[in-house]
Write a structure and sequence with these properties.
Helices cover about 65% and strands about 0% of the residues. With about 250 residues, it is mainly α. The longest helix has 28 residues. The protein is globular and about 55 Å long.
């Protein structure tokens, strides 16, 4: 079997696997953060856990970029910069901005996340810089790329701003959860998740590929059920939580 054949099989299987996992995640809350619980293996500090989970995406994508046959164009560099802008922040900056009690994450969750990130990274990196045949510099003027990048950057801003709003809820040393408000938090429980879904939807449009679409699809698979769980948790913990707020998508769901 050639690598190209393996790539296609993995890509199609990745979509198929996502459907039952999406359903399952509405009944099973991944045991980290506010849903932490025993029985999922040794625990790792949350800051170290985030770095261990997210760093492989930043590093592996850089490797795939430089070993690929199609990385010399400005367009390829643009994709590389967009990806690394997200993952360098997520792996090496975001963990040090976390406040609150030094919670831990089960090693099993970390390992699952690493596997997901590496598969996702492989599919996108190999497509962009090898199997796509290369994106010419003229792609920079294609409306799919232009609007895709604008959507990506819009989602990135929403995600980062929402993260900062959550961080400001706690002063250094505080551990209690507080009710977030302001900005998109007045509309949905998890605007940070909404921003990330928007971000990778823009990526799918900019790359115009099944590999990019698989990333947007899996971002929704992972985050939509957790956003719904967060909404229910807020309603249980805060009697004053506004009934009109949705879980993830403003005014809709």
């Amino acid at each position: 079997m050639s690598e190209a054949d393996f790539f296609k099989i993995l890509l199609y299987a990745w979509f198929i696997i996502g459907a039952p996992i999406f359903i399952a995640l509405f009944f099973f809350k991944a045991p980290y953060g506010r849903y932490s619980r025993q029985g999922w293996g040794p625990l790792v500090g949350k800051r170290a856990a985030w770095i261990i989970m997210e760093a492989p995406s930043a590093i592996a994508f850089a490797v795939l970029f430089f070993v690929g046959d199609h990385h010399a164009t400005i367009t390829s560099w643009a994709f590389f910069i967009l990806w690394e802008t997200h993952y360098i922040y997520r792996a090496f900056i975001y963990p040090h901005l976390l406040r609150g009690k030094a919670k831990h994450m089960p090693l099993s969750i970390i390992l699952f996340s690493i596997i997901f990130n590496l598969v996702n990274c492989y599919l996108n990196g190999r497509w962009l810089f090898q199997f796509s045949g290369g994106y010419s510099n003229s792609w920079l003027l294609d409306l799919r790329f232009v609007f895709g990048v604008l959507i990506f950057l819009g989602g990135l801003i929403i995600n980062r701003h929402s993260d900062m709003q959550l961080r400001k809820l706690r002063q250094p040393g505080e551990n209690a959860y507080k009710l977030p408000s302001g900005g998109l938090f007045n509309l949905v429980a998890c605007p940070n998740y909404f921003g990330e879904i928007v971000e990778w939807t823009g990526w799918a449009l900019a790359t115009w590929s099944l590999a990019g679409l698989s990333f947007a699809f899996w971002t929704f698979v992972n985050l939509a059920p957790r956003a719904y769980a967060h909404l229910q948790w807020y309603k249980e913990q805060f009697i004053e939580y506004p009934d009109e707020r949705k879980a993830l998508i403003p005014w809709m769901w």
